[in-house]
Amino acid sequence: MAPPAIIAPSILSADFAALGAACSDTIDNGADWLHVDIQPYALDMHALTKRQVPNITFGAPVVTKIRPHVQRPKAARGKGTFDCHMMIAEPKKWVKEFQKAGCDLYCFHYEAAITSTAAENPEDHIETKTSPKEMIQYIHKSGMLAGIAIKPETSVDVLWEILESPKKEEVPDMVLVMTVHPGFGGQKFMASELPKVKELREKYPDLNIEVDGGLGEGTIDQAADAGANVIVAGSAVFGAKDPAGVIKVLRESVEKRRQSSL
Hints:
Elements: E1 6-9, H1 19-28, E2 33-38, H2 60-66, E3 81-86, H3 95-101, E4 105-109, H4 110-113, H5 132-141, E5 145-150, H6 160-163, E6 174-178, H7 194-203, E7 208-212, H8 220-226, E8 230-233, H9 235-238, H10 243-260
Parallel strand pairs: 1-8, 2-3, 3-4, 4-5, 5-6, 6-7, 7-8
Helix pairs in contact: 2-3, 7-8, 8-10
């Protein structure tokens, strides 16, 4: 049976003028985690190129400010987890900064990890390369859970070697399958990505599988049918008249499928 439903509203759709209150209210409305999208100024996420500047639009200082508004999880993957989705070309550089800020789960892109450096600080410039397994190990050593994301153009096959690593510290705690192109708002849910979710669930029944992009009351059943249990929803929650009601619908859809698999 798949892990329990985890609803992780994306605070990129929250009211930035009252972000702390929006975060705490969302947890009070029944959310489990908060999904924190980290995007740089000049990074082309569609191509995941390295045209970027040293700073990021929604960074560690903001995470530091909102962390006191949400109680830290009492256990790994618990309520109040800050799930930071790092849509950046040099993910290893920011691990320490986000750990200090209060990140609980650091999710990087596979596409970035296979081309980025092993630099451990934002100001560092080195030629040595990192790798997905090395990234996961480094995140774990930093005291956080590790997630790995793939964009629509990336085959799910790239993950098998990582998930099958005999070293536990190299295995991710979560896989994120993007159901839109990362870095672009207002896109429609891409059901074409759900076979990746289905294949992951068939191979790894106990894995936390997250979907992000276009999720809401009209698309949740498709994602749940495929086997997703970690649901990211932005405007569907923060733009709703009844956010608690939407969170309930998302959870019930996942749990219904989960129970039927018994």
